[in-house]
Amino acid sequence: MAVTFDQRPVRRRHPLHAVLLAGTIPLFLGGLLSDFAYFSSYEVQWNNFAAWLIAGAMVFTGLALLWSLVDLVRGSPDRKRALVYFLLLLVTFALGLANSFVHARDAWGTMPDGLVLSAVVALTAVLATWVGFSSFRAEE
């Protein structure tokens, strides 16, 4: 029986980069859930919660985007995957910035745009995190 062995070195995401990348999902998801709660109840405080959660997620996304740009410029063995990861983070950041601008409006003016944008941004954050972590193999 033949045994195959992968000679590629195991690459690891820096722990701080991993925390920044993984931290985007609960913050954007919390913003989406807060927007849904505001859509259901029209309690203005839910809109404020969403705005603050999205602002926090933008900090994490911006730092992860900067880190991925540095990794892309330094070069990686899998350049195509690194470029897709960077572009997904860039789209997440751009949509999140637009979502922040929507949430800066009056509470009554955020619906339904804020809810739709929060759903799209949460989805792109999940995709960016998935691609960001899928490029690494488990160490044996």
UniProtKB/TrEMBL annotation:
What Pfam families does this protein's entry cite?
Answer: DUF2231
- Keywords per UniProt: Membrane, Transmembrane, Transmembrane helix
Organism's domain of life?
Bacteria
User: Membrane-crossing residues?
Assistant: 16-37, 49-70, 82-102, 114-133
Q: Which InterPro entries match?
A: DUF2231_TM (IPR019251), UCP029509 (IPR016923)
- Residue ranges annotated for the DUF2231 domain, each copy included: 13-132
Protein name per its UniProtKB record: Membrane protein
Please report the organism this UniProt entry assigns to the protein: Azospirillum picis
